Amino acid sequence: MSTSLERLQSRLALAPVDALLVTDPKNVTWLTGFTGSYGYALLRADRGVFITDSRYTLQAQAEVTGLEVISFASPRSMIDLMDEQIAALKVEKLGFEPSVTYQTWESWTRKITSCEWVAQPDLLPPLRMVKTPEELSKIRAACQLADQCMEHIVGMLQPGVSEYDIGLAIEFFFRRAGAGIAFDPIVASGLNSAKPHGRASEKKLVRGDFVTLDFGATLDGYNSDITRTFVIGPASDRQKLLYARVLEAQVAAVDALRPGANGRDVEALARKILDQDDLAQYFGHGLGHGLGADVHDYGRLTSTVDQPIEVGQVWTVEPGVYINDFGGLRIEDDVVVTEGEPEILTHFPKNLMEL
Ligand code: ZN
Ligand code: ZN
Q1: Which residues 6+ apart lie within 8 Å of 303 measured at CB?
Q2: Rounded to the nearest whole angstrom, what is the distance from the C-alpha of residue 225 to the centroid of ligand 1?
Q3: Which residues of the chain, if any, have pLDDT below 50?
Q4: Among 4, 18, 274, 285, which has the minimal tally of Cβ within 10 Å of its Cβ?
Q5: Domain holding 176: CATH number?
Q6: Shared-domain flag, residues 256 and 163
Q7: Do 58 and 198 reside in the same domain of the chain?
Q8: Distance 17 CA to ligand 1 centre (A)
């Protein structure tokens, strides 16, 4: 399989720009291997340079593959070096990533006037969405750790335990395993579970609560993202019905993630299942998002996005229902699209657990 750099350069050959300036730190790491905080790649289809400052010269020389490393030191600035290299590579139309801040873009374009600046939002992201085997193994490892954390935490879910203590235990588990937390864990019980992104509070679990846990690990630069909802004590008939429908929607949506499908149709399928009991009205967010170096990686599974599904993409599938003054639930797995059946990376059981 060709490298990220080769894949991007062959795409660049067909693009309406002469070169692309890659500045988003996650994209820089994905493209070059560089893990420092400040370095840009300036690419033409057939050559390119990596530019950074003197703090990172040695690190860049060790980490960056496929590009010559050029660095600057005070009193020279990044803009001086960019200006010089843009001229050296004879760039007339320069593509840039739209994630740059307005302030930075303004400073670039004021100083560097030898080229035309053209935003290129769609050049790199489709490539980053298709994971290499190496990236998949990192995401797998992060998912395995999330499963282990769920296994560990489920043992502490009982009346009297506070959401806050559960959140801390999740963070401690990941830190102790040498991982980071992908985001502040969501712990939402009872009426709080009607908030899709309820933050852990001092509320203690009581019998009859739904309790939704949503968390992920960051391991080796890649993330996992899992949600499970439990019931403390026996579930009511209403809770059982809601759970069964969300689970049915989740399982069907996972299975629909096949090459050639479109993300908005996959979401529509989940909504249709929820609507059998008039529940789609309580499902207010998208079905899922891309997962990788970012927790919310490129790509969305939602009605407003034309999202072709391709082999090698990794998606979260996370339908939920949230009912004010009652509570809510969500079930989320991480899934790789393959030639055949989708591969689910998070393995913690999904059947209703009454604790
Ligand atoms: Zn999540
Ligand atoms: Zn998610």
Answers
A1: 264, 267, 268, 286
A2: 5
A3: none
A4: 285
A5: 3.90.230.10
A6: yes
A7: no
A8: 37
Tell whether 89 and 156 lie within a shared domain: no
Which residues sit opposite 93 in a β-bridge?
Answer: 116
In tens, the pLDDT along 291-327 reads 999 999 999 999 999 999 999 999 999 999 999 999 9
**One domain for residues 20 and 146:** no
Distance from the alpha carbon of residue 349 to the mean position of ligand 2, in angstroms: 17
The tens digit of pLDDT for each residue in 88-110 reads: 999 999 999 999 999 999 999 99
- pLDDT at res. 1: 58
Question: Which-ligand-closest: CA of 314?
Answer: 2
Task: With beta carbons less than 8 A apart as the criterion, state whether 28 and 36 touch.
Answer: no
The answer to whether residues 284 and 139 belong to one domain is yes
pLDDT for the residue 2? 79
How remote is the CA of residue 289 from the centroid of ligand 2, in Å?
Answer: 6
Tell me the H-state helices in 203-262: 237-255
| C-alpha 59 – ligand 2 centre gap (Å) | 33
84 & 142 share domain: no
pLDDT computed for residue 194 by the predictor: 96
Q: Note the pLDDT of residue 35.
A: 94
Q: Would you say residue 352 lies in a domain?
A: no
Domain boundaries, position 59? 4-128
Q: Is the peptide bond before 259 cis (omega within 30 degrees of 0)?
A: no
Q: How many A from CA of 329 to the centre of ligand 1?
A: 12
Q: What is the pLDDT of residue 40?
A: 98
Which ligand lies nearest the alpha carbon of 227? 1
Residue 354 lies in a domain: no
Count of domains observed in the chain? 2
